[in-house]
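From the methods appendix. Each design record in this collection lists the tokenized structure first, followed by the designed amino acid sequence. Records were kept in a plain field format so they could be parsed without special tools. The example shown here is representative of the layout used throughout.

RECORD:
FOLD TOKENS (73 positions):
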């Protein structure tokens, strides 16, 4: 997803009815992105990330070099 975004590598993996959204930001500054509506899930759970807190929102800011994976409901 976000194929034209030059700062974020984002993808979804699906298996056995579960979906995992992964966002990878490779630059040393904050970066705000807008997710497509189909991936916005307020009940999403952080599976792993390199910052202590993260939340999935339609418009969200990734911190420098942030990577986070969300389990979508």
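DESIGN:
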């Amino acid at each position: 997803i976000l194929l034209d975004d030059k700062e974020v590598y984002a993808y979804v993996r699906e298996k056995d009815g579960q979906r995992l959204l992964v966002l990878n930001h490779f630059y040393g500054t904050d970066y705000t992105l807008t997710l497509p509506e189909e991936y916005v899930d307020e009940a999403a759970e952080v599976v792993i990330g390199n910052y202590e807190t993260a939340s999935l929102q339609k418009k969200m800011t990734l911190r420098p070099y942030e990577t986070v994976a969300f389990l979508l409901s």
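APPENDIX NOTE: Strands lie at 8-15, 18-25, 31-34, 45-49, 59-62, 67-72.
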